[in-house]
Amino acid sequence: MVDAFLQSGHFKTAKLYKEIPVFIRCVELVVLHGKNQLTAIEFKKEKWKDAIDQLLRVSTSFDFLEMCILEPSHEELKKEIICQCEQLGVGVYFMNPMTMKVRKVLSPQKSDAIW
Fold this sequence. Notes:
Layout (H helix, E strand, L loop, with lengths): L1 H6 L7 E8 L2 E9 L3 E8 L3 H10 L6 E7 L4 H14 L2 E5 L6 E5 L9
């Protein structure tokens, strides 16, 4: 999923880093925007709530938190994911499981977590 995401071209001018250790965890993709804004992106085929938990555990180290998940087929589940992520300030990308095309459905809010 990470490689398909990287090919999607969503971050053309940013520096991208895969599998970056943060505390005792590893963030799947870290995006450096300019000189001082960091985004953590987690990827999940299923268990989208786990992606949120993982992001919240490292939130003090990043300006923005996002997740990329396989797009659910049920509209109600899509709405639930977007609603929960919107409340938490987490950005969301849906990846089409057949074509592996990525689309951004929710932009992240700047994290207010402070280390």
